[in-house]
Amino acid sequence: MPKASMPLFTGVFVAGLMVLPALAQDQPVPPATAQTVVATVNGTDITMGHMILLHSRLPEEYRQLPKPVLFRAMLDQMVQQTLLAQSFDGEIPAFVEMSLENEKRGMIASQAMQLVIEEAVSEDAIAARYAAFVAGIEGQREFNASHILVDSEQAAREAIAELEGGKEFADVARERSTGPSAPNGGNLGWFTTGQMVAPFEAAVLEMEPGKVSAPVETQFGWHVIRLNEVRTATAPTLDEARGQIVDELRSNAIETRLRDLTESAQITRVEPDEIDTDAIADTSLLLE
């Protein structure tokens, strides 16, 4: 199995944190940029950018340490890593190259995705989507219904007979319904048109609150429906809907971008039935 690269927190690094004094910065120091060189090892620069990236990967307990102490310990480790890397004169193992390729691919893809999101999720886009959302629900009716789901029309009629005999709908639903809402007395919560399968919706639209339907058949089985309440939908405020809208814009933008890229790309790939898929867990292959 390939040897792991030097970890972020070597014994030297941790030990250094234990003995280094807290360094005061009483004198003004010039501001740093990501390109500011903080060390040079045999001509190889270590920059503040390298330090920032290393710091971002530290556990929270280390990031709470005084910055001067942490700076020196981190820089000590990066200098040591640079010296060891420079001393390596063998052929770079394939697994190292592949790891770097994976890391680079993932980071660049993340940046590309972020640019797509930034372009798609603007205040104008949010406002436009909110306006369309509000227009789509203003005046729309919402329904609250319960149902008893059984596997035959006969069982549905037996449930209705119990209801007509005075038994509570929720009790019959808990005892007879095979649907996931049974423990909740069959209550399905609030929904609008288009959210339920057609036969179920058609029955609800013909009902009045408090009434119970005749048996209704759908692909899920036979339903006995009780319409509990009807109300007119109220649009949320922009602030209330913002999170949902941003998520939708982000998801749609990424999906569209990936679809466009895929359609215009030349891609060949191996399918699972064309290769030994157990190989993905065999790290010994990296040493070949």
Furnish the topology, listing elements before pairings.
Layout: H1 11-19, E1 37-41, E2 44-47, H2 48-56, H3 60-63, H4 67-87, H5 94-120, H6 123-137, E3 141-150, H7 153-164, H8 169-176, E4 187-191, H9 198-205, E5 216-218, E6 221-232, H10 238-264
Antiparallel strand pairs: 1-2, 3-4, 3-6, 5-6
Helix pairs in contact: 1-4, 5-10, 6-10
Structural commentary:
- The chain is of the alpha+beta class and 288 residues long.
- Among the domains are: 11-23 and 32-89, no CATH class; 141-232, Chitinase A, domain 3 (Roll).
- The chain contains ten helices and six strands, in the order αββαααααβααβαββα.
- The chain has a four-stranded antiparallel beta sheet, sandwiched between helices. A two-stranded antiparallel ribbon has the order 1-2.
- α1 (11-19) runs antiparallel to α4 (67-87) and α6 crosses α10 (238-264).
- The longest helix is centred in the middle third of the chain and has 27 residues, at 94-120.
- The model is unreliable at 3-9 (pLDDT under 50).
Question: What's the short version?
Answer:
The protein is an alpha+beta fold and about 290 residues long. It contains ten helices and six strands; from the N terminus they run αββαααααβααβαββα.
